[in-house]
Write a structure and sequence with these properties.
alpha/beta, 10 helices, 6 strands
């Protein structure tokens, strides 16, 4: 009897949160640091904490559904940093990459899936199979004319992204015959931003990090300069719709200053 009561109370609270957001300013672009998969697995009693990666990967599509339902058209997910790829145990990295291939990339190929995939990060640090699966999904969804855009940050480091953008800009200018002085005179934030992994996409309005950690970990260092930040104590696989709606409620109550 207790479980039905709890489910009913949960649904009532979710509807109440949703009603509070009616007519409020909501983010156009939400970025998420999906943290705490292994800690969640240990918390719920799994012998293998790596099982949390599967639950976390499966949870991605549910959260994307919440975003679409709320009219959020751009979502960026931080899946793995360059340091994650280099420093975590090889078995854990292999498990995570397999989950990305099977649970994240493959469902995006389904015709009914509305999301167009974009990639952000260094493809050279990914296993061949993961790089191939993500590339297939990116190519297959490119011509969708989708109104919903999903960016997966994998093999990603915010400082490396800025360095790469500077290098790309200088190489482009050199091919055009420009001197360093020419580049320096014309350089603006907008021209450099066009060379980021996310060039052409809007910056995130809201960044959500799960697991209780209060740091960015190198995520979207340039793009999130004026983003609102929301830190949630629950681990990613346990991130509920009411947690998501609370984050949106917090965002809607803030007065954005954009650096002022």
């Amino acid at each position: 009897m207790i479980q039905p009561i709890r489910r009913g109370a949960y649904r009532f609270y979710a509807r109440r949160l949703r009603a509070q957001l009616a007519g409020k300013s909501l983010p156009r672009h939400v970025a998420m640091v999906m943290d705490g998969n292994r800690r969640w697995a240990r918390q719920v009693g799994f012998d293998d904490p790596g099982v949390g990666h599967r639950y976390g990967a499966e949870h991605v599509h549910e959260v994307l559904g919440w975003c679409a339902d709320m009219g959020i058209h751009h979502v960026t997910l931080f899946v793995a940093s360059v340091d994650n790829m280099r420093k975590r145990a090889s078995e854990e990295v292999e498990n995570l990459m397999r989950m990305i291939e099977e649970v994240v990339a493959e469902p995006l190929l389904r015709p009914a899936n509305p999301w167009q995939l974009h990639l952000a990060g260094r493809a050279d640090v990914l296993p061949d199979s993961t790089r191939h699966a993500l590339k297939i999904a990116e190519d297959a969804t490119r011509e969708r004319g989708a109104e919903f855009h999903l960016t997966v940050a994998i093999g990603y480091d915010g400082r490396e992204e800025i360095v790469s953008a500077v290098r790309s800009l200088l190489e482009q200018e050199a091919r055009a015959g420009a001197t360093l002085d020419d580049v320096a005179q014309r350089l603006t934030a907008e021209t450099l931003a066009a060379h980021l992994y996310t060039g052409g996409q809007p910056d995130p309005d809201l960044v959500i990090r799960t697991s209780g950690e209060r740091r960015m970990s190198g995520f979207l260092l340039w793009q999130a300069a004026y983003s609102e930040l929301y830190f949630c104590d629950v681990y990613w696989p346990g991130f509920r719709k009411i947690d998501f709606l609370r984050a949106l409620r917090s965002y809607s109550a803030r007065s954005r200053r954009f650096g002022a």
